[in-house]
Amino acid sequence: MSLDVPVPEPPELEEIDPNEYEDADVVGDTEYKREEIEALLREGAWEAAFEAWADTTDIDEREFGIVTDLKMLRQFDFFWDAFAERVGYHAPGIPEDWKEREYHPELDSWGTVSGINAAMTELGQMACDVLLDEYIDWETEYEAPDDLPDFD
Length: 152
What we know:
The protein is mostly helical. The protein contains 3 helices and 2 strands; from the N terminus they run H-H-E-E-H.
């Protein structure tokens, strides 16, 4: 399936500690390089990732309309995880209580909600892959603590 929509503006990254996310698996480092990543997204990484994602996503124009109505694409977060030497991300999602909250009038089923949430995760991963494969060549300097035991 292919989604034929214009490429939206990349997200503006805010200073958020990724360790605060419920699903965080970030270790330690506080140098998240958001400014550098945001610049790379603007220089073409977001467009490349979005176009690659749009070619393979399972969501349709109606579901993408829900995504844009909820401004979900603006809610992405990307950051440098120096410990793992990877780009980390947090994808926006529709909450579990969407029905009770009347979150959006076009949301009609758990299938739609699950499909949108999965698509946002896939877009986030695509952006990370494009950033790391085509834009980032940072090397993290890691120094082992002096007090490590000598196993010789």
